[in-house]
Amino acid sequence: MSGVVSKARAARRASLQLANVSTKVKNGALLKLALAISNNKRPLLRANAEDIRGAERLVKRGKLSGAFVQRLKLNNDKLRDVAGMVRSVARLPDPIGRTLYAVELDRGLELYKVSCPIGVVGAIFEARPDVLPQISALCLKSGNAVILKGGWEARRSNEAFFELIRDTTERAGIPRGWIQLVEARREVREMLKLDEFIDLLVPRGGKEFVKYIQANTSIPVLGHSEGICHIYVDARADLEQALDICYDAKVQYPAVCNAVETLLVHRAIAKRFLPRLAERYRRARVEIRGCEQTVKLLRGIKRATEMDWRTEYLDLIISIKVVGGVEDAIDHINTYGSKHTDAIITRDRRTALKFLTGVDSSSVMLNASTRFSDGYRYGLGAEVGISTGKIHARGPVGLEGLTTSKFYLLGNGHIVAEYIGPKARSFTHRPLRRKWDDVVRVFNVG
């Protein structure tokens, strides 16, 4: 038996126990983990520093970008945020055991639809070490075991986080084996075959990588292949507001999937707006690629190609297109976008509504930076990723997206034969006020 199979088998066993661990124990484990992260900053940063040194050597050889190193880097502020994220997950309501549907089928025959964990989640993610504790915290709170495969460039950081999470949570009462770490690339190919043990795959990485995962497994896959995010600046936009939003969405952190990649600007304000925005971008060393009209307004910039409208730069590069109005903007986004996150800046409510309902993306925003598209900022505690698909979960996926449901039918000798034929009994299908929690309390009393 290979190492991956044995880890997956252990995770499956642990998941069956973890599904029934109490909210109190789960929250206690998370709070102890947050404290452990705060108390172990030095060894975590030491492990990360080794990864950074290795990545910087590859940058010098032209094999990695500077933006990649930024994503890889941890510091005291990031670790403080990670600990805060874990505490925020502990504070969230437990998503397991919620009554989704309760109905009396007939007297003495009651049906409950109740939320439950998915089981075992396989998370394959890029070289961002803070992703590992995010996914782990969400899986623990939602009662799921997790198998983690991080980018090899963050190997030491991932190992340090994994060992801290495993040791802290297992001492706090979480079933042994609930969290597993795999490291070799070949182990990813093995994971894709383990539909007997893994219930959901969450890939976080480049477009080609996600497509490879989707094409080579029968396990359900949740995620997005890329984040080609747009901002449309309308003729009735507050231009000062637009300058701040467009700057924030590109410059604040360009190497993430919710950074803006294309700006669409109404032709009525392009002449006033674009030179001012270009100057702010110039000071931040943002490279601009523009359509024909944009090139005329901003001398010295590159002409955008068809490929630019389809590109996720993840860098200080942006494409700009002058459009005739909101309909043109919507058409461009629905043609070239990735259904991730798109925004409009306008004071016109009718135009805003047309954009919000017309753009087919998982998050659509009004007068706000695309950078808000994030599980933590949405109040989900954290996220395992952002889903651009439309089945099961969409947008930032937090605790609720890591649950499924099961039906409990409680009868008293009922048989289907009594409900068939000329003297068939009738179903009442009466909604019940009683929740599954009430049933559990009665059962526990005995």
Q: Which helices and strands occur, and which strands form pairs?
A:
Blueprint: H1 3-18, H2 23-39, H3 41-60, H4 66-72, H5 76-91, E1 99-106, E2 109-117, E3 120-125, H6 131-141, E4 145-149, H7 155-171, E5 179-182, H8 185-191, E6 200-204, H9 207-215, E7 229-233, H10 239-251, E8 260-266, H11 267-283, E9 287-290, H12 292-297, E10 302-303, E11 317-323, H13 326-336, E12 341-345, H14 349-358, E13 363-366, E14 385-387, E15 395-397, E16 403-410, E17 430-431, H15 436-445
Helix pairs in contact: 2-5, 2-7, 3-4, 3-7, 5-6, 10-11, 13-14
Protein model, in words:
This protein has 446 residues and is an alpha/beta fold. The chain is built from 15 helices and 17 strands. The strands form 4 sheets. The protein has a 7-stranded parallel sheet with strand order 10-9-11-8-7-12-13, sandwiched between helices. Strands 16-2-1-17 form a 4-stranded antiparallel sheet, with no helix packed on it. Helix 2 (23-39) crosses helix 7 and helix 10 (239-251) crosses helix 11. The protein is globular and about 80 Å long.
Name given to the CATH architecture of the largest domain: 3-Layer(aba) Sandwich
Supply the number of helical segments: 15
Tell me the span between the first and last alpha carbons.
Answer: 44 Å
Total DSSP E strands: 17
Shape: globular
The main sheet comes to: 7 strands, parallel
Strand content: 15-25%
**Approximate helicity band:** 40-55%
What's the CATH H-level homologous superfamily of the largest domain?
Aldehyde Dehydrogenase, Chain A, domain 1
Work out the count of structural domains: 2
CATH top-level class of the largest domain: Alpha Beta
Q: Which ranges are low-confidence, i.e. pLDDT below 50, for 5 or more consecutive residues?
A: none
Strand order of the largest sheet: 10-9-11-8-7-12-13
